[in-house]
């Protein structure tokens, strides 16, 4: 009986490993690994640009951004 | 609001990701409110209960008669209840809430199908409640990190499956051109945990492996829960909040990607270092030790990256509560991971294995790193979700200093005590009971730090509840920037 479970476990492990390999292939194909420094900027936008601190203690303002 | 596709449309492989629009950050934050608040409220409640059990267990170690005649609160049960409460109650609930919010923000689309998440949340919290009551009633499975009795685990699994499905949908309909490094970590974590959990359930509970293989599976699971579930979620939060709070991009994006893939490659092997000296094949242990040392690569890479991002901005620690907690967590991650690699060395393990040093190490990882990062994330997320300011800056300070000093005393005290304990145990001339008696001062320092940490948690809980209950009044100052005040706009 236990070989059924181990069979499932083995199958799942192969799937997980396969999905990691596929993820790496996919990200390289989609150009996710190119122009990495631009990727670092993807969390900023017009509303919250680079140079804009976004957190402070209540009642206090973060310092003015450098121009 | 962009039109939300129905659940069926989201699951249909033929439907195009174009049916959702790229959304504004404020829209996204608002859309996460229900599930994020549900999971955060649950997390904070579990944190308080878990802290109470932590204190009970800690006092029992130096005062064994404390609550000693109550069957439900004997050490074996209280300590196990503490572990499961803070792991599956606090940490996982907080991790889910932070992961939902980050996933929605990073995929640049509003959070959809929050019903799925609410059902998952109900299953998860009923599962944890049932599991902890089971442990206190004496039904623990006695397998470390999987003590929750078998009648409660299926509930946890259902919850997990729903959240995994949700994450895939969110990723699929994402509207960001680039997959930010945090998203890699989050997706990987959401993908790895069901694998770890289901294999461990099959091989330890349903059809237990025999002999020493059982111990191997146990430590493969227990260590990977830390490394492949909590670590990626914690790092995802650090990689988002550190640059976001400072308003400057991460020092080297290349290093962050390198860190991710090397973690994915090495961590899975490292868990067996818990069995050094045990009756398992030597090559398995050697492979585990090698992987543990290879972990220095992602850790050092991540540490350098975080440090270089902070350089020149350390003054920001004065004004940002989020940053304080996140930086404390990130520094702890580097230290605790390097100590962890060192502990995998055979000679070091000979001394510190089976001592309080291991306990200190575990708390440095789960508390000084992971929990601190979660606190920091919550301080950032909550004002944006509720559109209210934190009511008390003083309570935030009390929270930070009490837990920061508390966990430092904890880790330093038990680390020193643990090394001393290990050296004495290796010396056959010292009677065992003297070794035990010699640990008492260090155990007292642990209880003291426990009291400090409890004070911090109470300050946090009071601030949290106060924030929930108070009406949204006109603020005297701009709240923690849900939108940029006009005078702070950058002139180009």
Structure, explained:
The complex is a heterodimer of chains A (67) and B (492). By secondary structure, chain A is an all-alpha fold. Helices cover 49% and strands 0% of the residues of chain A. Chain A contains 2 helices and no strands. Chain B has helices at 7-11, 25-31, 33-62, 75-106, 114-136, 153-172, 181-206, 212-246, 253-270, 282-294, 296-310, 316-319, 321-343, 346-352, 356-386, 393-426, 432-438, 440-469. Chain B contains 18 helices and no strands. The longest helix of chain B is centred in the middle third of the chain and has 35 residues, at 212-246. With 492 residues, chain B is mainly α. Chain B is 73% helix and 0% strand. Classes of the chains: A mainly alpha (67), B mainly alpha (492). At the A-B interface, helix 1 and helix 2 of A face helix 7, helix 8, helix 9 and helix 13 of B.
Which labels suit this protein?
heterodimer, A: 67 residues, mainly alpha, elongated, B: mainly alpha, 73% helix, globular
User: How confident is the prediction overall: mean pLDDT of chain A?
Assistant: 81
User: What is the H/E string of chain A?
Assistant: HH
Structural class of chain B: mainly alpha
Largest sheet of chain B: none
- Percent of residues in β-strands of chain B: under 5%
Count of helices of chain B? 18
The radius of gyration over CA of chain A amounts to: 23 Å
Task: Report the sheet-strand fraction of chain A.
Answer: under 5%
Per DSSP E runs of 2 or more residues, the count of β-strands of chain A stands at 0
Helical content of chain B stands at over 70%
Oligomer: heterodimer
Kindly state the mean pLDDT of chain B as a whole number? 90
């Amino acid at each position: 009986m236990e070989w059924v479970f181990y069979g499932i476990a083995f199958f799942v492990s192969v799937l997980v490993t396969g999905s990691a390999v596929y993820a790496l292939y996919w990200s390289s194909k989609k150009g996710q690994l190119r122009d990495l420094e631009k990727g670092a900027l993807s969390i900023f936008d017009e509303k919250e640009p680079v140079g804009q601190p976004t957190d402070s203690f209540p009642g206090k303002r973060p310092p003015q951004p450098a121009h | 609001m962009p039109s939300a596709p129905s659940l069926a449309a989201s699951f249909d492989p033929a439907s195009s990701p174009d049916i959702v629009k790229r959304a504004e950050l404020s829209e996204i934050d608002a859309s996460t409110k229900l599930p994020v608040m549900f999971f955060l409220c649950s997390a904070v409640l579990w944190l308080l209960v878990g802290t109470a059990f932590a204190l009970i267990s800690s006092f029992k170690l130096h005062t064994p008669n404390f609550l000693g005649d109550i069957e439900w609160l004997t050490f074996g049960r209280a300590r196990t209840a503490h572990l499961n409460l803070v792991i599956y109650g606090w940490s996982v609930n907080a991790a889910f809430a932070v992961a939902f919010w980050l996933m929605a923000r990073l995929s640049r689309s509003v959070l959809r199908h929050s019903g799925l998440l609410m059902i998952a949340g109900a299953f998860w919290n009923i599962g944890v409640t049932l599991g902890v009551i089971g442990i206190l009633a004496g039904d623990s499975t006695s397998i470390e990190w999987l003590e929750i009795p078998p009648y409660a685990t299926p509930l946890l699994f259902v919850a997990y499956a729903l959240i995994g499905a949700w994450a895939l949908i969110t990723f699929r309909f994402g509207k960001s051109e680039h997959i930010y490094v945090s998203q890699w970590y989050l997706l990987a974590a959401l993908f790895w945990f069901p694998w770890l959990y289901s294999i461990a359930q099959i091989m330890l509970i349903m059809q237990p492996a025999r002999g020493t293989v059982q111990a191997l599976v146990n430590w493969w699971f227990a260590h990977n829960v830390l490394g492949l579930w909590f670590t990626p979620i914690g790092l995802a939060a650090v990689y988002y909040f550190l640059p976001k709070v400072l308003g400057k991009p991460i020092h080297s994006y290349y290093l962050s990607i390198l860190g991710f893939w090397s973690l994915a490659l090495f961590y899975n092997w490292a868990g067996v270092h818990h069995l050094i000296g045990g009756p398992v094949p030597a090559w398995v242990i050697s492979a585990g030790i090698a992987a543990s040392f290879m972990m220095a690569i992602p850790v050092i890479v991540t540490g350098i990256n975080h440090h270089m991002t902070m350089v020149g901005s350390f003054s920001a620690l004065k004004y940002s509560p989020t940053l304080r907690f996140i930086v404390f967590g990130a520094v702890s991650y580097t230290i605790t991971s390097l100590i962890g690699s060192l502990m995998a060395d055979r000679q070091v393990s000979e001394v510190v294995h089976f001592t309080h040093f291991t306990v200190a190490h575990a708390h440095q990882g789960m508390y000084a790193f992971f929990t601190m990062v979660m606190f920091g994330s919550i301080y950032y997320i909550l004002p944006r979700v509720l559109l209210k300011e934190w009511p008390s800056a003083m309570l935030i300070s009390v929270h930070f200093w009490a837990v920061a000093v508390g966990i430092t005393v904890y880790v330093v005290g038990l680390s020193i005590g643990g090394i001393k304990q290990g050296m004495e145990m290796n010396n056959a001339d010292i009677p065992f009971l003297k070794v035990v008696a010699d640990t008492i001062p260090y155990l007292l320092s642990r209880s003291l730090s426990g009291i400090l940490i409890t004070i911090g948690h109470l300050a946090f809980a009071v601030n949290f509840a106060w924030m929930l209950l108070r009406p949204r009044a006109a603020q005297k100052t701009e709240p923690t920037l849900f939108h940029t005040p006009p005078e702070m706009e950058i002139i180009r």
